[in-house]
Amino acid sequence: MTWRMLDLFSGIGGFSLAAQWCWGNDLEIVAFCEIDKFCQKVLKKHWPNVPLIEDVRDAKDFDSINLLTAGAPCQPFSKVGPRKGKQDNRYLWREMFSVISETKSDWLVFENVPEIDGMVLDEWIIDLETQNYEVAPPFKIPACAVNSPQERYRLWLVAYSKSIRYEHGKGSFKERTNGQPCIGGSLLCDSTSERLPDWTGGKMEQPKTITEFERPSGREIECNFRGMAYGISRRVDRLKSLGNAIVPQIAFQIFRTIKEIGNGKMPCL
Length: 269
Fold this sequence. Notes:
By secondary structure, this protein is of the alpha/beta class. It has helices at about 15-25, 35-45, 95-105, 120-130, 185-190, 235-245, 250-260, and strands at about 5-10, 25-35, 50-55, 65-70, 105-110, 135, 140, 155-160, 165, 170-175, 215, 220-225. The protein has one domain (about 5-260): Rossmann fold (3-Layer(aba) Sandwich).
């Protein structure tokens, strides 16, 4: 079965990279949606054949989407800022929800800062439930759980359409008959800072992780993110795009769980 993926607020492609680790050649990225010009260049370099939509309001007319991912702008909620919430012009939930309602993707995976809990998270969940989605309990995972040298907690939200289920072992969707949700937060991953187990998923090559920072001399700081040293072209753009990016190793764990549910290797709850 080929998984069709729509990647909203794509950034530099962290969600799509993780999905490729998980599904390999069985993944079709239908489109990216990203407004930042530098991030667009990164996406076009690594995925030159994938259509790129600049404005989320133009992400229309997609069907048969199995996976919709989104790392919506966090600035309206981040503690590093005024936290204007819905009053911030970068708050784009209504536009994003319009795409969700029209696309009716089988699975939804979102990432954002933990501060959305208590501000807009309940509204998001209620909206998704009106579109017949079962929403797993939200969970927080730090980047250090996958060996990144930073804490960087993020909140993850996973939902699936209650109108479908997998026919275990046959790789196809069937109408649900048992009325029970087939995913829960406890199945996805450990939300503590401990290392996530069983990285490779059988024969799959372990995704590369970020391991350490180096301080060569004086004020210069380099790390094993390429292009982060002072004097490197477009350094500010690169720093900004990396700061806004998801941690793909965490998304990989979530996708792997979704894949195992689909393959009948993990029971429905």
